[in-house]
Specification:
Elements lengths: L11 H8 L9 H10 L1 E5 L4 E3 L7 E7 L2 E5 L2 E6 L5 E2 L1 H6 L6 E4 L3 E7 H23 L18 E2 L8 E2 L1
Length: 168
């Protein structure tokens, strides 16, 4: 793993469960493996708060079972109950406060991924893809001599409206 920690063993039950969700059915195996390696299965009893309106959220959540009530200012506006329903994804990825409270209407299970891990993996995959694309554009006859060196490009994070904004 890029964070220097030990690689997490991928649970095939987690992968098959995630794959069963409509949103992930057509995803490639490599994506599912990466996603599953970040996911932690959590459970909450009926009545427990999942996310609270007005608070900062740093978790991307996927409903696995049960029902979740969506409330704005204490008024129910929706009921989530389909395995694979996303919860808190916009606030987590956009680094915004939660726009609605989520309350377990029944006992629930959900997968949780820390947004910073998901963003980091996405950036690593994008950078790797960009490098591969650049390499594929080089003519076959062009090879680097052993005396050539390249300077690494450093990426600096810049706080703007999105945590995904980077400058070279």
């Amino acid at each position: 793993m890029a964070d220097g920690g030990p690689a997490k063993k991928i649970d095939m039950n987690v992968i098959s469960r995630i794959r069963s969700f409509e949103i992930f059915r057509s995803c490639p195996e490599q994506f599912l493996n990466e996603f599953a390696s970040l996911a932690v299965l959590r459970s909450l009893p009926e009545g427990e708060l999942v996310l609270q309106q007005g608070y900062v959220n740093d978790r991307f959540l996927i409903l696995a079972s049960g029902q979740v009530e969506v409330q704005i200012d204490g008024e129910q506006i929706a009921l989530l109950g389909t395995p694979g329903d996303l919860m808190g994804e916009i606030s987590a990825i956009a680094a915004r406060v939660v726009s609605a409270s989520l309350i377990a209407k029944t006992d629930i299970e959900f997968f949780e991924i820390q947004a910073r891990q998901l963003i980091q993996r996405s950036l690593e995959a994008k950078l790797s893809s960009d490098i591969t694309s650049i390499d594929s554009l080089r003519p076959c006859s062009q090879t680097k001599s052993s005396t050539q060196t390249t300077k690494p490009v450093a990426l600096k994070a810049q706080t703007v409206n999105s945590p995904l904004h980077f400058n070279h």
